[in-house]
C-alpha cells in the first residue's frame, strides 16, 4: 500500500488543528442552542486531513475554480463541523459562525449545508443521496476533460439507505476512479446503535463485493488517515475508506452515546467538554 507518510511534527500539527476544530464546532453548536455534536466530533480528524493535510486542491479565494477537488458531506447534519472547517480554511471569516442556524444567516449557515455557502458543493438533508451526487460529479470531470477528484463523507446510518448501494454499483460500472467515499463508521445513529437497526458488518466484504477498492482504518489516527488518503487512485475502481470512529470523540460523556446525536451542550457541559479538549 503506497501512500504518503508525514513527519511527526506535521502530524502533530494536524492533530492540534483537529482538536481546535472540535472545540470551535462545540462552541458553535452551543451558541446556536441546537446542532449535532456527536457526528461532528467523530468526523473531525477526517475532514482536517482532507482540507489541511495537502490531500485536496482548492482555493478559498476562488471557490468555483473548475479544476478544484470536490468535497461533499453526505451526512449533512454535521454542518457545524463543515462550516468550522471552511472558516478555518479561509472560505469566510470565523466570526460568521455566530450566525449558525439563525434565520437570515448571511452565508446560509443552516443546520444542513447549502451551496449558497462558499465552499459547499451541494445541499444536504435527506440522507443517502451524497454518493449518487458524488458519482455524478466524478463522471462530470470525465465529460469535461478535467482531472479533479471527488471526496464524499458518508455516515454509517445512511448506509442503510438503498440509494447508497445503487450508487455504489453505478460508480463501479462507470469506473469512477476519481471518486473516494469515506464512511464515518461511528456505529451510533440518531437514537440507537447502528448494529441494532441494521447490522452493516461485514462492511469491508460488502464494498469489495460491489467492486470497490476498499480500505479500513482507524478514523482517529491522523497518520493512518493521511497515508490512506494519499494512496494513488486505483486504475479501474472507485475507492472507499471505512474509518472506524467514535461518536462524540474527545469528550468523555459524549463518546458512543446516541443521546448526543442532536443536542446542544449546556454552559456547564460545554465548559467540561472544552476542558477535556485542551
Summarize the model shown.
The chain has helices at 8-32, 37-42, 44-52, 79-89, 130-143, 162-173, 194-197, 203-209, 222-229, 267-276, and strands at residues 70-73, 150-155, 179-185, 213-218, 239-244.
Low-confidence runs (pLDDT<50, min 5 residues)?
A: none
Percentage of β-strand residues: 5-15%
- The average pLDDT score comes to 96
* Strand adjacency order, main sheet: 1-2-3-5-4
Order of helices and strands: HHHEHHEHEHHEHEH
- Briefly note the CATH topology name: Rossmann fold
Name its key features:
278 residues, alpha/beta, Rossmann fold, five-stranded parallel β-sheet, 5 strands, 38% helix
Task: Explain this structure.
Helices cover 38% and strands 10% of the residues. The protein has helices spanning 8-32, 37-42, 44-52, 79-89, 130-143, 162-173, 194-197, 203-209, 222-229, 267-276, and strands at residues 70-73, 150-155, 179-185, 213-218, 239-244. Helix 5 packs parallel to helix 6. It has one domain (8-276): Thiamin diphosphate (ThDP)-binding fold, Pyr/PP domains (Rossmann fold), CATH 3.40.50.
Task: Describe the protein's topology.
Elements: H1 8-32, H2 37-42, H3 44-52, E1 70-73, H4 79-89, H5 130-143, E2 150-155, H6 162-173, E3 179-185, H7 194-197, H8 203-209, E4 213-218, H9 222-229, E5 239-244, H10 267-276
Parallel strand pairs: 1-2, 2-3, 3-5, 4-5
Helix pairs in contact: 1-3, 1-4, 1-10, 3-4, 3-9, 5-6
Amino acid at each position: 500500500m503506497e501512500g504518503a507518510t508525514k513527519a511527526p511534527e506535521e502530524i502533530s500539527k494536524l492533530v492540534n488543528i483537529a482538536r481546535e476544530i472540535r472545540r470551535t464546532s462545540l462552541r458553535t453548536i452551543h451558541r446556536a442552542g441546537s446542532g449535532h455534536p456527536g457526528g461532528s466530533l467523530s468526523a473531525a480528524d477526517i475532514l482536517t486531513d482532507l482540507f489541511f493535510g495537502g490531500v485536496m486542491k482548492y482555493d478559498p479565494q476562488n471557490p468555483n475554480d473548475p479544476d478544484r477537488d470536490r468535497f461533499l458531506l453526505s451526512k449533512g447534519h454535521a454542518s457545524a463541523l463543515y462550516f468550522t472547517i471552511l472558516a478555518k480554511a479561509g472560505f469566510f471569516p470565523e466570526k460568521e459562525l455566530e450566525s449558525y442556524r439563525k434565520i437570515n444567516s448571511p452565508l446560509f449557515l443552516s443546520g444542513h449545508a447549502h451551496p449558497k455557502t462558499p465552499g459547499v458543493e451541494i445541499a444536504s438533508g435527506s440522507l443517502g443521496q451524497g454518493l449518487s451526487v458524488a458519482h455524478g460529479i466524478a463522471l462530470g470531470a470525465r465529460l469535461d476533460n478535467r482531472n479533479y477528484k471527488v471526496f464524499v463523507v458518508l455516515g454509517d446510518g445512511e448506509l442503510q439507505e438503498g440509494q447508497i448501494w445503487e450508487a455504489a454499483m453505478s460508480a463501479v460500472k462507470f469506473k469512477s476512479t476519481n471518486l473516494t467515499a469515506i464512511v464515518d463508521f461511528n456505529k451510533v445513529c440518531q437514537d440507537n446503535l447502528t448494529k441494532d437497526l441494521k447490522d452493516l458488518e461485514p462492511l469491508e466484504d460488502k464494498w469489495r463485493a460491489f467492486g470497490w477498492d476498499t480500505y479500513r482504518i482507524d478514523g482517529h489516527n491522523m497518520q493512518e488517515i493521511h497515508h490512506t488518503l494519499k494512496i494513488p487512485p486505483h486504475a479501474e475502481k472507485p475507492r472507499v475508506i471505512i474509518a472506524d470512529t467514535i461518536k462524540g470523540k474527545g469528550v468523555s460523556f459524549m463518546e458512543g452515546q446516541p443521546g448526543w446525536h442532536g443536542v446542544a451542550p449546556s454552559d456547564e457541559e460545554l465548559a467540561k467538554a472544552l476542558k477535556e479538549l485542551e
